[in-house]
Write a structure and sequence with these properties.
Number of helices: 6
Structural class: alpha+beta
Largest sheet: 5 strands, mixed, barrel
Distance between the termini: 69 Å
Shape: globular
Number of domains: 2
Strand content: 35-45%
Number of strands: 17
Strand order of the largest sheet: 9-15-14-13-17
Length: about 350
């Protein structure tokens, strides 16, 4: 059974039979969002919402004569904020008709992998033989463990007319104070460097020597700024909590699944919702981590702390994505006017 069902308010469901019963009772044409027709069956995707922008998606097949049979299901969350990319690859699972989206050009230092929430629509493009392209991706996440942490004082936050968070640009006017605390701390910076960083800048120094005078002076200043920043981070890491140094981040989680991530992100907006079928309370958190904006759903029982705009969310998420596929228009060649 999918453990992320509790993220959308199904914490009391204990086995797949209960969920299939839920599907059988609520299967209706109005929930059909996409279908693919073959010679022997009709494959459809039914999204049964439990609250706004979240629910359970059932992938079912229907023979020419007979009832819809559920092949597999997954809880889903939706977002309406596009994540614009230049290219996205789609990869199929080996054991079922489910897919992963892979973004290689994400400015993160690693490939961003997410679970595709509109697989039947993707299949319809494949079966039709039509060429398509990816216009946008709408990222979302489900979480079963999370906590609210205080914001960093890296800028001033304001709330706009829509009740969402806006952050002023970072004020670097105080950046000169980076090393002030170092003067008052009776510590050996070089010793801490040896303990925590294996940093050899001999090559950098050699490059500086080989540069012309103007470039040499500039490079020297850059290296001094880098040394000062490293020194400051080393000292802060010994004295402060990690979350007061790291503002936002997203990284692959330590798990067997490639679409699970550990994130820290600013809460742009937060809405408390109720599962219409179970009456369980869930949170819809709109989060910005690095340059990625996504909606994360989590059961109120699994969230430590009170969400507020301006605070941060830290947790593990199952990353999902809805890809907006568009058909490529064929270019019509111009006919020669010569006889």
């Amino acid at each position: 059974m999918n453990v992320y069902l509790r993220a959308i308010g199904f914490s009391k469901i204990s086995n797949n039979e209960e969920l299939h019963e839920f599907f059988a009772k609520n299967i209706e044409e109005k929930y059909l969002v996409a279908n693919v027709t073959s010679d022997v069956k009709l494959v459809g995707q039914y999204n049964i919402g439990v609250t706004q922008n979240a629910g359970v998606s059932f992938i079912g097949r229907q023979p020419k004569s007979g009832e819809v049979i559920c092949d597999y299901y997954f809880p889903y969350a939706m977002s309406h904020t596009p994540f614009r990319i230049s290219e996205c690859l789609v990869r199929k699972y080996r054991d079922r008709d489910a897919y992963l989206g892979v973004v290689d050009d994400a400015p993160l230092g690693f490939s961003l992998v997410f679970y595709l929430t509109n697989p039947v629509l993707y299949n319809s493009f494949l079966n039709s033989g039509k060429e398509y392209y990816v216009r946008n991706i709408y990222l979302s996440g489900l979480s079963v463990e999370g906590m609210i942490i205080l914001p960093m004082e890296s800028g001033k936050f304001t709330v706009n007319a829509d009740g969402e968070l806006e952050q002023a640009p970072y004020d670097a006017s105080n950046s000169g104070k980076l090393g002030d605390d170092l003067l008052s701390d009776n510590i050996d910076i070089e010793e801490k460097k040896e303990n925590y960083i294996n940093f050899n800048n001999n090559d950098i120094k050699q490059d500086i020597i080989n540069h012309p005078l103007k470039d040499k002076e500039l490079a020297q200043r850059k290296m001094e700024q880098l040394d000062l920043l490293l020194d400051n981070l080393l000292v802060r890491a010994q004295k402060e909590d990690l979350f007061s140094i790291v503002h936002t981040t997203i990284s692959p989680a330590d798990s067997l699944e490639c679409d699970e991530y550990d994130i820290i992100g600013d809460i742009i907006s937060c809405t408390q919702k109720v599962n219409a079928w179970t009456d369980e309370v869930i949170w819809d958190l709109k989060i910005k981590t690095l340059d990625i904006v996504l909606n994360v759903f989590i059961n109120s029982e699994d969230l430590v702390g009170e969400p507020q705009v301006g605070r941060r969310f830290k947790g593990k998420i199952w990353l999902q994505g809805e890809i907006e596929f568009l058909e490529k228009k064929k270019r019509q060649s111009k006919k020669s006017e010569t006889q």
